[in-house]
Amino acid sequence: MFKAVKVRLYPTSAQQHALACQFGAVRWVYNHALEWRCTAWRERQENVTLRMTLDQLVTLKRQPETAWLRDADSQALQQAMRHLDHAFSRFFNKQARYPRFKRRSGKQSMAYPQRVNVVDGNRLYLPKVGRVKAVLHRELVGRIKTVTVSRSPSGKYYASILCDDGKELPQPDRHVDGDQVVGVDLGLTHLAITSEGVKAPNPRCLNQGIRNLRRKQKALSRKQRGSTNRNKARLLVAKAHERIANQRHDAQHKLSRQLMDENQAICVETLRVTNMLKNRRLSKAISDAAWGELVRQLKYKANWQGKHVVSVDPWFPSSKQCSACGEVVSELPLSVRTWTCPTCHHRHDRDVNAALNIKAEGILKLKAAGLSVSACGGLCKTGEWPAVASEAGSPFLKGGEQSPEQLRARQSFLSDNHLNS
């Protein structure tokens, strides 16, 4: 099992200069290799491999014009080449956009694949830099694999230490208790609404710090470019952005930890955030909510604890479908927060109803994957569920021939949803 611990570094003036040289060398090598690969494909339709870039790095060190690369750590430079190759692999697999050049301003980072040790309990030895003072607020369990050193735009230094504790990831349980399955609907008024009716408030960190941020950005725009005062103003703006990001991450970590500790399986809807950001009226609020980061935290914490995170299709009508009878209304504007089902006349809260439908769809996905899910807190049965091979016989869908056991499960499920809503 791999776990990373991010610690704060306090380098001296000489160590800051050494780190700046390391950051500059890694950034230059990355940009040089990226330009080489782009030119080779644009002019000659040639594919540049990782092996070719590593050989080119050796050649650059032997040339007099770039002999200064010898002062940087060789493994950190090689790791930059591997990061570039991984970025191209993600681009070709349609997982990320085309790699971009690294800027001198902004966040700087480099990775040490080995030869990093903890000295005296409060110092971190970095090659070509020395022993840097570090605040190790957590015990490092296992063997150190990779250490990524970074400098934030606000001028703070951090080290992300990846350790291997030698343990295997826990296998998810094949038997899931129905009472420990929760559906989560993500929103803007409330960040997360569960199928149990609990609504987690949206911290709206950007709105809380927007006045302070606007004031400092205006002061930055008045400063002359290249001046010392402009650099001071830039640091103030970077600290304001960092404070907002830290508040958002703190709220998301607390919420994800609470959801993961209280439940065995979490069902969330897959949101196409990129398309939703095209709405100019809601784009700022959607970006501030950071739904994708919350789902990412749920997934990796579920892997650590051997639990399940089920993603529901984005086209599933979670808000338009009645959780009591299954009727789907034709239209439901975003401004309508409560509505009444025209078939069963049951009144729904829009968000709670969506969370209930997401939970029901997530349970179907768990059963389709071969897991046994107990209904309404009953005992888990190891037998196969009859509706796995055919959705028409599912107790949660209309139509199809249903056995008496399926009918009783459906009635119990719908009555349970009716009480929860």
Structure in words:
With 421 residues, the protein is of the alpha+beta class. The chain folds into two domains: 2-164, no CATH class; 178-420, no CATH class. 43% of the residues lie in helices and 19% in strands. The chain is built from ten helices and 16 strands. The chain has helices at residues 13-44, 50-62, 74-92, 205-222, 228-262, 273-276, 283-289, 291-305, 350-368, 404-420; strands at 2-10, 108-112, 117-119, 123-126, 130-135, 143-151, 157-164, 175-176, 181-186, 190-194, 199-201, 265-269, 308-312, 338-340, 347-349, 372-373. It has a seven-stranded antiparallel β-sheet. Strands 11-10-9-12-13 form a five-stranded mixed β-sheet. A two-stranded parallel ribbon has the order 8-16. Strand 14 (338-340) and strand 15 form a beta hairpin. Helix 1 packs across helix 3 (74-92), helix 4 runs antiparallel to helix 5 and helix 5 packs across helix 8. The radius of gyration is 27 Å and the shape is globular.
Set out the fold topology.
Blueprint: E1 2-10, H1 13-44, H2 50-62, H3 74-92, E2 108-112, E3 117-119, E4 123-126, E5 130-135, E6 143-151, E7 157-164, E8 175-176, E9 181-186, E10 190-194, E11 199-201, H4 205-222, H5 228-262, E12 265-269, H6 273-276, H7 283-289, H8 291-305, E13 308-312, E14 338-340, E15 347-349, H9 350-368, E16 372-373, H10 404-420
Parallel strand pairs: 8-16, 9-12, 12-13
Antiparallel strand pairs: 1-5, 1-7, 2-6, 3-4, 4-5, 6-7, 9-10, 10-11, 14-15
Helix pairs in contact: 1-3, 2-3, 4-5, 5-8
